[in-house]
User: What shape does this take?
Amino acid sequence: MSTILANGLSVDAPGSSPVSHALSRVLGFGLRLLTGWKVAAPEAPLSRKAEADAVREWAWTFARTDRSFSDDLFAAADRHERAGN
Assistant: This one.
């Protein structure tokens, strides 16, 4: 999957797993909120499970360098997933 940025450049999403795809969509959404970029809506909304899995995958990137932040992300993902039940 690739995303077209506001400047017209195409960026390929990292990885090909559904979690990587979800993570790229979540991070892309955050970037659009911060920058004000207008991009087409995603094809389908993410489930709470997919969002939580994306945050967990992101948390693993901080596990070695910032364990406290990583733990906070894991806890937030768990709370987010449980809130939908």
